[in-house]
Amino acid sequence: MDELKKIIKRGIITAVVVLIYGVLSGNKYVYMGMFSGAILSVVGFYMICLDAKASLASNSPFKVGVIGYLKRYFLYGIFLALATKFYGFPMLVSGVIGLLNIKINILAITLFNNIKKFKSKYLK
C-alpha cells in the first residue's frame, strides 16, 4: 500500500512540475495537454486501485475488472478525442505523453530500486 501512495504522490509531483515548466515556457501543449494527461493518468491509476479492491470483495472479479478497464479507457478516449478535436494533432501527442506519467514513474522507481540493490550487492 505504501508503494501505491508513493507512486500517486510522485505522479502528482510530476504533473505539477510539467505545469510549472509549461507555464514558464509559454507552451500551451505542455501546460494544457501534458498536465491534463498527467492528472488523468493519476486518476486512472487511482481507479485501478479501487477496482482491485472491489474485485477482491466481489463474487465476479472478472466482470468488475472488465467494467473498470472499459471505464478507464473510455475516459482516456474522450480526453484524447476532445484534445484532438479542439487543438489538433500536437495536443493529441502531448496528451498521450501526459497519460504515460504513471508508467514513467513506475519505471523510474523500479530502475532506482534495482540500481540500489546492484550497488549494495556489488559495489561495497
From TrEMBL:
Membrane-topology annotation of the record: Multi-pass membrane protein
Superkingdom, natural source: Bacteria
Keywords: Cell membrane, Membrane, Transmembrane, Transmembrane helix
Subcellular location: Cell membrane
Transmembrane is among the record's keywords: yes
Gene Ontology cellular component terms for the protein in this record: plasma membrane
InterPro entries per the UniProt record, alphabetical: ATP_synth_I
Transmembrane segments: 7-24, 30-52, 96-115
Pfam family, one: ATP-synt_I
The protein's name: ATP synthase I
Annotated source species: Cetobacterium somerae ATCC BAA-474
